[in-house]
Write a structure and sequence with these properties.
3 strands
């Protein structure tokens, strides 16, 4: 089971709040993961926060790719 965030990783969206809320929740102990889909200027900071919160095994990142169009 997983929660998914999909979007650009920018300061205005405050994605760090999601990391903190996930860390504070009981979901981590229930084996539920957080999947982040997207890229942006906050990526490095968020991955550092993931390490600080000791969530390396619970938060996963998938890079966004452009849609295929003909």
């Amino acid at each position: 089971k997983s929660f998914i965030y999909s979007g650009r990783l920018i300061a205005e969206k405050k994605p760090e709040l999601l990391f903190h809320a996930f860390s504070d929740s009981k979901l981590v102990n229930q084996g539920i993961d957080l999947i982040i889909i997207g890229t942006g200027p906050e990526y490095e900071e968020l991955m550092n926060l993931r390490n600080i919160l000791n969530l390396n095994n619970n938060i996963y990142h998938i890079y966004f790719t452009q849609r295929y169009t003909k």
